[in-house]
Amino acid sequence: MQGKSRPAATPAEALSRMDRYVALGLIGQQEVAQLLGLNVTDLTCLGHVLGAGDTPLGAGDLAELTNLTTGAVTGVLNRLERAGYARRQPDPADRRRVRVVADPAAAARVFAVYEPFYARLGAVFAEYSPDEIAVIADWFARATVEMTAHLAEVRSGQLGPVAPGAVTP
Question: What does pTM read for this prediction?
Answer without folding.
Answer: 0.81
